[in-house]
Specification:
This protein is of the alpha+beta class and about 525 residues long. Helix content is about 40%, strand content about 20%. The radius of gyration is 55 Å and the shape is elongated.
């Protein structure tokens, strides 16, 4: 993106310069020159897009390393200590910032992480602030990644001859080149002394001029070291949202594989407040691709399934043999089978239906037997029998009642025979379920068919019960009538007289008319109340 901006800007500046130096008096010639410049710009843009599309940007995977970082608003604890960090000299820590030096002349301060960073690639995002009353400040701020922790020294408050990397934010122009404030990257192998006179310009890997003093928002610096490539990006604090611009980039850099992160600052004849608001370290891991793409699962094979079934059956048989052998040697440790316990404690739904039907059949059979005996006793009484000596007076039954009783007796006998046949079928069905190893009600009968047969038997039992209940009610009515006739001295089997029936009907009709009249009067009164 920056290269594209540079190409477009260069072409536009070139066109402006050409238009200013060589005026186009002929219109056709001027038009041709503009067309040439447009073609050149299009070719440059196409080349740049091809380069971008063919480039593989591998950013890696980042992981925040909290032991090597700090940030507000709880930067320091109540005692002013930063977890996992140590600081000294003029450095002071508060809840939201670490002040390395106050705006007092000839001061220095430093802060170093206590733990050794052992990851190969890393990234640091630092938010800082440099403020002062003067138009020019001094000396500057530095961020470090070195093999050993530094102490007090002349290089922005830290020791010289370091082994590692130093990122310097130089505020004062020592060489008079009018190129400060300046940000630069300096690598040292431990044998080089920093050149203050030339502001390290001859030792720097790269840098840029950025005014980071007295900015409306805290500036930011992003330092990335990944695959031996070192990149420094800077946001100069013009807006609250970071907008990084590449300040310097160096390739083929080999930093120590392990090191310590640190910060330092110093003031000289001029003074600034050097504050660090956050220092966040992230390790970078190169994304790894699998060596071999996993293959799709194999298709289903019936032979393999049969092989597994055979093996399972074989293992189960071996287990049962071992259990039997163990129980023979230790009979006191034998426990009832869980499956047997389950079968005794829990009842199958079909078995429960059969049991209930059998119980109902037994109850119906007992009632039918009682009714048959009672009807047989009534049917054999003589019509108009005479009481004997020493016996109570008895009244016989008419021929019509005798015929009714005979018909009822035949129906009860038929019901009893059907009930016995149903009970026999139920017992056979239950026996087949007990004998069958899979619990079915026959050789090829399915569970649905068995359930359907049970439902049909249940409906038959319901019909039998209703028939028996009707017979019982009929017998109870006949018994009550017989007792009433015995108390009156005769067995009255006649119906209600015509006059009695008509009187009862007129009484009921009169009661209905009165009820309807009263209800209509109440309804009319309720309708009238609605209008008031």
């Amino acid at each position: 993106l920056h290269f594209m901006t540079f190409v477009v800007g260069f072409l536009s500046n070139l066109a402006v310069a050409e238009r200013q130096t060589v005026p186009c008096r002929p219109v056709a010639s001027c038009h041709l020159d503009r067309m040439k410049m447009l073609r050149l710009a299009i070719v440059a843009l196409l080349a740049l897009l091809g380069h971008v599309s063919s480039t593989n940007y591998d950013d890696g995977l980042r992981r925040f390393e909290y032991k090597h970082s700090f940030k507000g608003p709880t930067l320091a604890d109540k005692e002013g200590r930063i977890p996992c960090w140590t600081y000294g000299n003029s450095a002071m820590a508060s809840g939201d910032q670490l002040r390395l030096t106050p705006s007092i002349r000839s001061r220095m301060g430093h802060a170093w992480n206590k733990f050794l960073f052992e990851k190969e690639w890393w990234e640091v995002e630092m938010v800082f602030r440099v403020t002062g009353r003067g138009r020019v400040g001094a000396d500057g701020l530095a961020a470090w990644f070195t093999e050993k922790q530094g102490g007090d020294g002349p290089v922005f408050g830290s020791s010289d001859h370091w082994h590692g990397l130093g990122v310097f934010f130089d505020s004062f122009d020592n060489d008079g080149g009018q190129n400060n404030p300046h940000i630069l990257l300096v690598q040292n192998d431990g044998t080089m002394a920093y050149d203050h006179a030339l502001d390290g310009s001859t030792q720097a890997l790269g840098g840029c001029m950025r005014d980071f003093r007295n900015r409306p928002h805290p500036p930011r610096a992003l330092i990335t070291y990944y695959k031996n490539e070192l990149t420094l990006s800077v946001d100069h604090g013009s807006s609250p949202q970071p907008s990084y611009e590449v300040c310097a980039r160096a390739v083929g850099i080999k930093l120590p594989p392990k090191g310590y992160f640190g910060l330092s600052a110093a003031t000289g004849g001029l003074a600034d407040d050097h504050d660090v608001l956050s220092f966040k370290v992230s390790s970078i891991t190169a994304p790894s691709l699998p060596d071999k793409i996993p293959e799709s699962p194999p298709a289903y094979n019936p032979d393999d399934f049969k092989q597994y079934e055979d093996e399972y059956a074989k293992r189960s048989e071996e287990l049962n043999e071992q259990k039997d052998k163990f129980y023979k040697q230790h009979p006191e440790k034998r426990k009832p089978d869980d499956l047997a316990d389950w079968e005794t404690e829990y009842e199958d739904p079909t078995d429960r239906k059969l049991r209930l039907i059998l119980e109902g059949q037994s109850a119906v059979q007992e009632q039918v037997k009682v009714l048959v005996r009672h009807v047989s006793t009534k049917a054999v009484q003589p019509a108009g029998g005479q009481p004997g000596q020493g016996q109570p007076e008895q009244h016989g039954i008419s021929a019509t009642d005798s015929a009714i009783l005979s018909d009822l007796q035949s129906k009860l006998l038929e019901i009893s025979r059907e009930q016995m046949v149903s009970a026999q079928l139920l017992k056979e069905m239950q026996a087949r379920r007990v004998d069958s190893p899979d619990g079915a009600t026959g050789g090829a009968q399915q569970p649905g068919a068995a359930a359907q047969g049970v439902d049909e038997l249940r409906s038959d039992v319901a019909v039998l019960k209703s028939s028996v209940d009707a017979a019982v009610q009929l017998m109870e009515g006949m018994k009550a009538t017989s007792q009433a006739g015995s108390s009156n001295g005769a067995f009255d089997t006649g119906c209600v007289s015509t006059s009695t029936f008509l009187a009862a009907s007129l009484g009921q009709l009169l009661l209905v008319v009165i009820t309807v009249f009263i209800y209509s009067r109440q309804r009319a009164s309720q309708e009238k109340r609605k209008f008031f």
